[in-house]
Amino acid sequence: MREGYEGTGPGAITPDGCAVELYSRLPVRDEPDIITAAVPAGAHILELGCGVGRMTHPLLERGFTVTAVDESAEMLDRVRGARTVCGPIEDLELDEPFDVVMLASFLVHAGDEEVRRGMLRTCVRHVAEGGCVLIQREGEDYHTDLPRERVDPSGFTTRILSAEPVGDGVDSVRAEYVFPDAIWTQTFRSRPLTKEQFEQALAEAGLRVDRYLTEDGIWVRAVRR
Predict the structure, then answer these.
(1) Is 222 helix (H, G, I), strand (E, B) or coil?
(2) Who's near 196: CB < 8 A, 6+ residues apart?
(3) Considering the entire predicted model, what is its pTM?
(4) What is the rounded CA–CA span in Å between residue 216 and residue 175?
(5) Backbone φ and ψ of 106, nearest 5°
(6) Residue range 111-157, pLDDT digits in tens
(7) Contact at 8 Å (CB) between 195 and 140?
(8) Which residue intervals of 105-155 are DSSP H helices?
(9) Sign of torsion, CA 16 17 21 23?
(10) Closest CA to 114 of 207, 225, 204
């Protein structure tokens, strides 16, 4: 396990506390539509932190080519139809350019700043000239007004239980996912970033915001500076 990360519940748990079986159950929302509207048709996408392919599979169905990267072999075993690469995002060296590099799942909020810098360098290293990087940020209230919960129409409940400061601007976040037949928890480190801090982190890596793709600012299209 990565330091500060933990997961409980049935099945395999990844180094960042994610439960493979849980992520296989989570529904797809509007993310594939947001991505499709922001990138050229048929683009080759490098998906960093693909998990079980929750977004990979809808993107393949929309005609994109996807290279899917994750540090968990158990997660990648669930991916179908895409080239897969197993290893830490921050160490990735594929020596080929991609039309689109995608860093979703709030990975840009990694508690370890060096890990975040490594991830963003990986994005810059792999995006083609004229290409773009799509990044998913946390919502502005992600670490406040806790605990809170959301009941999904499909019948499970997601709870963000707490976000406790652990020093250096990092919070330890605890989440719980309650299904009729199973319960999973995940504890992970997250570094809240204001819009200004986020844009500064991009600038340090050689990127700039092209545009915010959603009104809440959670999805962002970035390009080389």
Answers:
(1) strand
(2) none
(3) 0.96
(4) 22
(5) 60, 25
(6) 999 999 999 999 999 999 999 999 999 998 899 999 999 999 999 99
(7) no
(8) 113-126
(9) negative
(10) 204
